[in-house]
Amino acid sequence: MKSSNNILAGIDFSDSSAIVLRHALHAAGASGSRLVAVHVLDAGLREHRDVSGMGNPGFDTLKKEAEGRFAELLEGNVSEVEVQFSVKIGKPAEELGVLAGELGARYLIISANDLTKKRLGSIAARCLRTVPCDVLVLRDWQGGDFRKIVMCTDFSKTADTALARAASLAGGSGARLEIVYVMYPPGRDSWGKALEHAADSVMSYEEECKAEVQAKLDQWMERNEAVLKDVKHEVLILESEVPSIKITDHVVSTGADLVVMGTHGHSPIMSLFLGTNAERLLHDAPVSVFAVR
């Protein structure tokens, strides 16, 4: 059933699956969506088991086992959300991408599977690059509701959508929302050298740059005023030549739980602000990440 009123959850039955399911049920309930949970039997792992002489149970057997495990996972979650569960065989990121496209999913929720607590698991990273819908990646050790959400803006239409997603999550969990724009350090050229300014200018070059950015930010906030009506929020302008590094440092130092960012589909590798910054931020920020197409 292709409809934007579906939320897709990837369930791998790891310890973090309970967190994924809880957030997915909450998101589906808040948006009036149907929850489609899916478990992908990794074809590569099945081949590895066969080569090792272990053999594999038939698909019907594994499907029934997965359905039983999902029923146990669902127990204790009181929700009026319509839930559908399915089992697929293949490469997890590819199968999730295909299903997301077929459903026209609002977004996909998955676990980071980041055992080192430093880098996203390979499946999560691949989903962020290839799945044709918004993707919320939950860090394995982050249980409970979000307390602080950082949303990155570049004033684009994609940022409008990202803000709507962030506001919805913040409103549903009672989290504080911080809207961040990273501007290039005023008074510096492309090589980091100081720029000279006309002596007869009323404002310094730095003041002019900051005033221009503030005016753009004010205009963008006014455009999205309705979205933020009932959400606790604040706005912050940071300065850096490399936005991803600045945002990562800010997220770590302020104890944020989630980063929400707009991504632009110019290439298979997502871009934000300065191209590869999104990729770097997604890997380096040690928090959950919501990538909005």
Task: Describe this protein's structure.
With 293 residues, this protein is an alpha/beta fold. The protein has two domains: 1-140, HUPs (Rossmann fold, 3-Layer(aba) Sandwich); 145-293, HUPs (Rossmann fold), CATH 3.40.50.620. Helix content is 40%, strand content 21%. The chain contains nine helices and ten strands. Strands 3-2-1-4-5-10-9-6-7-8 form a ten-stranded mixed sheet, with helices on both faces. The longest helix is centred in the C-terminal third of the chain and has 19 residues, at 205-223.
What name does CATH use for the topology of the largest domain?
Rossmann fold
Q: Could you say what the CATH architecture of the largest domain is? A: 3-Layer(aba) Sandwich
Order of helices and strands: EHEHHEHEHEEHEHEHEHE
Kindly state the percentage of residues in helix.
Answer: 25-40%
CATH superfamily of the largest domain: HUPs
Rg over alpha carbons: 21 Å
**Helix/strand/pairing class, anyone?**
alpha/beta
Number of domains: 2
Strand order of the largest sheet: 3-2-1-4-5-10-9-6-7-8
Regions with pLDDT < 50 over 5+ consecutive residues? 266-275
Count every helix, treating DSSP H or I runs of 4 or more residues as helices: 9
The total count of strands amounts to 10
- Please outline the major beta sheet: 10 strands, mixed
What share of residues are in beta strands? 15-25%
Shape: elongated
CATH class of the largest domain: Alpha Beta
End-to-end Cα distance, whole Å, is 21 Å
Overall pLDDT metric: 82
